[in-house]
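Two quick folds needed for the group meeting slides. Do the first one here.
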Amino acid sequence: MLENKTSDHVTTWVRVAVSIFDADGKKNEVFAEIPTWIDPMGEAKFWVELPDVEREQFNGIEFCNDDDKAPKACMAWGVTDLMGLTI
């Protein structure tokens, strides 16, 4: 779920990064862009297609712990950029 926590901005585009860490901690990062519309103080469900990533890369992999300084055999995601309109 994506949230727009502003009261004067409509979110129209989001860039997401997905990081996949192998068993040795090597990071593979991919990006996806999402056209969307999220009203001020609103939220929206989303999905992305990840280029150059096979579904099998996610089999049996868990999300990384937020406090893990050297993640291994896990994945994480986050918003890296967004655009929109001020109202």
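Then this one, please, same format:
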Amino acid sequence: MSDKILLPHIVTIENRKDMTVSGVIQVIAYDEYRLMLKTDYGRLMIQGKNLMASEISSSQNVLKLSGDIQLLQYQAQKLKSENLLSRLFK
């Protein structure tokens, strides 16, 4: 088991228009229809329309955005020891 301390991760959505995400390590991709964020708990994809990041704080690891939020989806983190052969023989 890893001894890594995970950042607290909280997602707050108000009326499907305003969203605050804490525990953001990195913004991987961003446009008006999709955001892909890296967190200690996996990648978080946010989809919608007219998405606009209003505040990004790298010191606080917080992202605030607004728009028409339609979908949140987490993608599990892949283990670093998982290689091509181990994925083929699952």
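Slide caption for protein two: The radius of gyration is 15 Å.
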